[in-house]
Structure formats: structure tokens, C-alpha cells
Specification:
Blueprint lengths: L3 H17 L2 E7 L14 E7 L6 E7 L5 H11 L7 E6 L4 H10 L2 E4 L4 E5 L2 E5 L21 H9 L7 H8 L3 H13 L3 E4 L2 E4 L2 H11 L6 E5 L5 H15 L3 E4 H8 L8 E5 L3 H8 L10 E5 L10 E3 L2 E3 L2 H8 L6 H13 L4
Parallel strand pairs: 3-4, 4-5, 12-13
Antiparallel strand pairs: 1-2, 2-3, 5-6, 6-7, 8-9, 10-13, 11-12, 14-15
Length: 351
């Protein structure tokens, strides 16, 4: 029997045809003939007639009531045998940005109930995005980019070739085993991680980093702006010596860190994470906070994880390339350019 979802998919296609005028529907089959159970078979087959085109376009459609990234990944693998024989399409009432990104990367078209779509076929290209999902998934889920759970993301990105047991992840991240398990399930469901032989690995690490950076709020770390009379390299050296003498963790970030790891342009503003005692450090530097014209910023980290995987460069502590990317990518001016340089020169080679 034809399912309600398959009939709905046919309606979505008709609405898209009416809205765009790019095609008309010659035929929709919601009960395609099954040819054995081993090979993937479409739920819906649609033949589209294009304007000024003699040959119709055939869409072979997989219809899903719910489509997580992990489910999409499994579907792509099943669809692979049919690639080249027709235009492959995923349809679901709600398609997330993550699933849409995965479809684009694998050359699979998609369409949801709201009309968000990307359909690519010979002589046809339709892309609509930004429409609110008609039936958003309201089930509670963990935010893998929240402060503590993002420690798991940081560890996976910083150790991309290592597999992790969840107990080891919890210990490394200094979080509860329960939270580590929830973060693991969420990362697997979003297809940002995969399990191999019982161990968790990052999957598509660049997409994971970009997704994290889209939600990362650099302003969570409090900043004190100062004006330094001495040269910034000299001031940074003094900060390093003072913190090391006091047993306080510190690390250069933003342009100060980027200059050490992937120098592009000279910087005129220094940014330094200092774990504690910023007032004492300010007094030792002989500086005073200023509201405008600051060239030195002391950051109090929102979470100790910013110090994970520190690097020593020219005798000074610098945050990891992952943290540098997060701190730079949204920075006005040349922040994005500097972040891309760090990605290209420091991060991608490790993946």
C-alpha cells in the first residue's frame, strides 16, 4: 500500500513545480516495482518534464519520516548502487542544515515539506533554503557545543587519528561518564563521529570544527583592555615570565598566537588568556585598564579547556590551533583570513 508519507512527497513535488515553473510532473509512481531485497529501491519514482527539453528527468526518491545525519549517511551507502541511473533524492518532513550539507557533498538532491530543496539534474537546478521546518524535531537532545560537552569535541579534533573509549574521553575531558556518553550519542547521531572496533573517532573533522565555530561565542571569556607603552612582544614576554613564576597558566591567542604559528601580517593588538590573578598581573605590568585605545587584552577563560593542547613557541605558551581558529574566525577585520591560514597550515595537515 502507498504510505501517507509517499503521497505527501508527491504533493511536495507538485507544489515545487507550481512555485518554480521549472518543470511539470509527467508521472509519479508511489508503488515502484521492487526488484529483490538486497539492492536499495526508491519509495517514489517521479518523471519530470522540463521546459524546452525533449528527455524527461527521472527522480528516485527515498522518503523518511525522520532523517538524522546518521540515518542519512546509512541511506547514502544503500543508494550508491543506483548512482548514475537516475537522480537520487532524499525527502523528509524536516531536513536539517547538517543533512542538507551532507547531501550536497555526496551529490544527492533533497526536498522537505517546507519546500527547502536542492535538486540537481541535467537541465535543472533548483535550490531553496531558509524556510522554517513545518515539523521540527522537538525531542530533547544534548548540545554537543555547550561548555562542558564541547570538551569532547575539542579532544576529538585535537587527536583526530586516535580512537577513544567513552571512559577515557570522560577522564580526559574531566566530565562525568554520563555526560560523555550523551555527547558520544549526539555526535554519532549527527554523523560528526563514528565508531570503529568500539572506539570513537572524529568523522569529517573540518565540518565538525565549522559547526562548532558557528556557535562559538568568544565573548564568554571576560576581557580587560589595557594600554601598553612597551612593544607588544616585550609585554608578552613579561606576562609569560610573571605567570610562569607564579605557576599560573596563560596562553597567547588571536593575532598574538597566529603570528607565532602562521605569521601573515604584523599585529598591533595582543590577546592573552590568564587563568587567574589578572589584577595582580596588571599591577606587575604597571598598566591601567582603559575603555578605548587598548592594545593589550587579558582574557579570563570561560572554561579551563581553552588551555588544552597548549603549544610553546619562542618560549611562550600559545593556545592550540583549534582554539586559535575559534577565537579568530568571527573577529572583525582580518580575523577570518588569519583563521583560514591556521586551518590550512596547522590543522588540516593533522587530519
Amino acid at each position: 500500500m502507498r504510505s501517507e508519507l509517499e503521497l505527501s512527497v508527491a504533493d511536495w513535488l507538485r507544489r515545487l513545480a507550481d512555485e518554480t515553473g521549472a518543470f511539470s510532473i509527467a508521472r509519479v509512481v508511489t508503488e515502484p516495482t521492487r526488484q529483490g531485497s538486497a539492492m536499495w529501491q526508491p519509495d517514489v519514482v517521479a518523471k519530470l518534464k522540463l521546459k524546452d527539453k525533449a528527455s524527461p528527468v527521472t527522480l528516485e526518491i527515498e522518503a523518511k519520516k525522520r532523517l538524522t545525519p546518521a540515518e542519512a549517511l546509512a541511506t547514502f551507502e544503500r543508494m550508491e548502487a543506483r548512482r548514475g541511473k537516475a537522480v537520487l533524492v532524499l525527502c523528509s518532513p524536516s531536513i536539517s542544515e547538517r543533512v542538507a550539507e551532507m547531501c550536497r557533498k555526496r551529490g544527492v538532491s533533497y526536498l522537505d515539506e517546507a519546500g527547502n530543496c536542492r535538486i540537481v539534474a541535467p537541465g535543472l537546478f533548483i535550490q531553496i533554503e531558509g524556510r522554517g521546518n513545518v515539523r521540527p524535531d522537538t525531542r530533547p537532545t544534548i548540545d554537543v557545543f555547550a561548555t562542558k560537552s564541547s570538551r569532547i569535541v575539542r579532544i576529538l579534533l585535537s587527536n583526530p587519528k586516535r580512537g577513544w573509549q567513552v571512559q577515557a574521553l570522560a577522564k580526559e575531558a574531566q566530565i562525568s561518564l554520563g555526560l560523555a556518553s550523551k555527547a558520544k550519542r549526539a555526535l554519532l547521531e549527527r554523523a560528526f563521529a563514528e565508531e570503529r572496533e568500539g572506539l570513537l573517532f572524529a568523522r569529517e573533522p573540518e565540518q565538525l570544527l565549522r559547526a562548532w565555530s558557528n556557535q562559538y561565542d568568544v565573548s564568554k571569556s571576560k576581557r580587560i583592555g589595557l594600554y601598553a607603552l612597551d612593544s607588544l612582544p616585550e609585554v608578552e614576554k613579561r606576562i609569560g615570565e610573571w605567570c610562569s613564576g607564579k605557576g599560573i597558566r596563560y596562553a597567547l591567542t588571536q593575532y598574538s598566537g597566529a603570528w607565532r604559528m602562521a605569521p601573515m601580517v604584523r599585529y598591533n593588538r595582543s590577546s592573552v588568556y590568564v587563568e587567574s590573578s589578572p589584577r595582580e598581573l596588571i599591577a606587575a605590568l604597571g598598566s591601567k585598564p582603559v575603555n578605548t585605545g587598548a592594545n593589550l587584552f587579558l582574557w579570563t577563560p570561560y572554561d579551563p579547556s581553552v588551555f588544552y593542547d597548549l603549544r610553546e613557541v619562542e618560549g611562550l605558551s600559545v593556545v592550540s590551533p583549534i582554539q586559535l581558529y575559534l577565537d579568530l574566525i568571527g573577529e572583525p577585520g582580518r580575523g577570518e583570513e588569519a583563521a583560514q591560514e591556521i586551518l590550512q597550515r596547522q590543522i588540516r595537515p593533522t587530519w
